[in-house]
Specification:
The chain is α/β, with parallel strands linked by helices and 243 residues long. The protein has a single domain, classed as Aldolase class I (TIM Barrel). The chain is built from 11 helices and 8 strands. The protein has helices at residues 9-16, 25-34, 53-63, 79-88, 115-127, 140-149, 159-164, 170-186, 202-205, 218-227, 229-240; strands at 3-7, 39-42, 70-75, 92-95, 131-136, 153-157, 190-194, 211-216. It has an 8-stranded parallel beta barrel, surrounded by 7 helices. Helix 3 links the parallel strand 2 (39-42) and strand 3. Helix 6 runs parallel beside helix 8 (170-186) and helix 10 packs across helix 11.
Amino acid sequence: MTVLSVNVNKIALLRNSRGRNFPDLIEFTRKLLAMGVKGITVHPRQDERHVTRQDVVELTALLQDYPGVEFNIEGYPSPEFLALVERVRPAQCTLVPDAPDQLTSDHGWDVPKHEAFLKEVLDGLRDIGVRSSLFLDPNPSLVECVKRVGADRIELYTEAYASAFGGDQQESVIAQYEATAARARELQIGLNAGHDLDLQNLPRFLQIPGISEVSIGHALVVESLEQGLASVIRQYLLITGEL
């Protein structure tokens, strides 16, 4: 089974575009949980253009009533971000190498280049009891470095797979993900995945053994506009084996 972690950033972005609390992020999240979702992801950016720091605090309070649901906070490990993580103590913190003004995540960590920095941050997360994950491109050689810095999991950055899906390069591209995942399993590093996964491409990707969690937001919101939220959530939970 793979946990579906719904990224609610786009709901917050829609709310922020009108300057009032509609849609209500907390109530929307409560609806997701009632539908059987077992993971919630947020990416609080420095400019708070979607999820805000206050949202993170309020979601943390909400999830206290749902002990079976994991909260995943992702972001660049700036001092401000790490202070927020230490304050709310989510189940998981996913570190991404995003610049402050970046539109969306578009690459994984160059772990050898940032090895000392990442090791210090990951040691800090371990000290406060937060599981760690590193956003990573599909490259088996990088997994050795992940082991050295001490991350609990990697999140495979899946845009390359999503772009190749349905085309002539699909299987050669996914072979890189399979090799990376295999090396992670050998080294007992957990596996997550995310970015541009959707109802069409997720089933093939989850043929890779050992994917513990997928984080999906943008595609899920678009599909919900087309098909309805309840239908889309049910389809994802069937694909991930949670129903």
